[in-house]
Specification:
alpha+beta, two-stranded antiparallel ribbon, rod-shaped, binds zinc ion
């Protein structure tokens, strides 16, 4: 019986040590992963920044927009046509 408890405690001790080491490794990996994830989130944020075309009102990512003199257009053609309000005048 004493032998069984001895082996059981060694088994449990081994499990605890393995778990602690695994957690440390996971934390380290998570730390590295977090750094890369943060830059990914930053680029995602800039990609998600939506702007509105002054001519047709279409919403599109800023990176895909045509921007002239603080005005945003969905295409070169709409930049050429100008804003709708200006077109009516
Ligand atoms: Zn447009």
């Amino acid at each position: 019986m004493g032998k069984a408890i001895f082996w059981l405690s060694i088994f449990i001790g081994g499990l605890v040590i393995t778990r602690i080491l695994a957690r440390k490794a996971a934390q380290h990996a998570a730390g590295v992963h977090f750094a890369t994830q943060r830059t990914a989130t930053n680029s995602l944020k800039t990609a998600e920044q939506m702007v509105r075309c002054e001519h047709c009102g279409l919403h599109l990512p800023r990176s895909e927009a045509t921007i002239t003199e603080n005005q945003v257009w969905c295409s070169q053609e709409h930049a050429r046509l100008g804003a709708k309000q200006q077109q009516r005048v």
